[in-house]
Design brief:
The protein is mainly α. The protein has helices at about 5-10, 25-30, 30-40, 45-65, 70-85, 95-120, 140-155, 155-165, 175-180, 185-200. Helix content is about 65%, strand content about 0%.
């Protein structure tokens, strides 16, 4: 195995197999439609390339709607996770890849606006409510923590490393890119795909891994 293979190895999801590896140089010359086709085959380098092309534009749209940096980052992350899962259903005849992506960003941003409006509209709990009301059972929390640890152990090493450093070590994605000597788009791709795997395994428990900013 070459050094490039060790540093940039891609582990396909759910049995997908790539016919040959893709490199940053190769991806840069592909059309947006071709990049989406690679994403549909579980190529996370292609997901990083799509983020390189449209991440700034996607964030700008999300921020204009949400006016909040953390929520805008959440909207973008959710949108790219949506691309990862649905790239195989993209139809070039119906829309350009950038239009499709920005539609996903817009929908997710609007969903977050509505969620925040509902949260602000919820009445405050009365002061007479017992202090321990609604406190999660310790045994349940311990079970959730163990489930998360088990799910993390099943991730490819590069995805697990990025997620653990981000959420347990407190590193931002920009700091991870510098620490691991990887492009920011590659770090974001590892986070996106790793979180997608965690969500598939953990469901609601994976929400503890939301909100990481670059």
């Amino acid at each position: 195995m070459t050094e490039r293979g060790r540093e940039g190895r891609v582990v396909p999801l759910r049995g997908w197999r790539r016919e040959r590896p893709t490199t940053v140089r190769e991806l840069a010359h592909l059309s947006d439609e071709a990049v989406l086709a690679l994403i549909a085959r579980a190529d996370d380098h292609a997901l990083a390339e799509l983020y390189r092309r449209f991440g700034r534009l996607a964030y700008g749209l999300a921020f204009r709607i949400l006016r909040d940096d953390a929520l805008a980052q959440d909207a973008v992350q959710e949108a790219f996770l949506g691309v990862w899962r649905a790239a195989g259903r993209f139809t070039a005849e119906r829309a350009k890849p950038s239009t499709w992506l920005l539609t996903l960003v817009h929908r997710r941003a609007v969903d977050l606006v509505r969620r925040e409006e509902r949260r602000r509209a919820e009445p405050l709990q009365p002061d007479t409510e017992p202090l321990d009301a609604g406190t999660p059972d310790e045994a349940e929390l311990a079970t959730q923590r163990e489930a998360i640890r088990d799910a993390l152990r099943k991730l490819p090493p590069e995805q697990r490393e990025a997620i653990e450093l981000a959420y347990y070590g407190g590193y931002t994605q920009s700091e991870l890119a510098e620490r691991l000597d990887q492009p920011l788009g590659t770090i974001k791709s590892r986070m996106f795909t790793g979180l997608a795997r965690l969500r598939d395994v953990l469901g609601e428990d994976a929400r503890s891994f939301q909100g990481q900013s670059p």
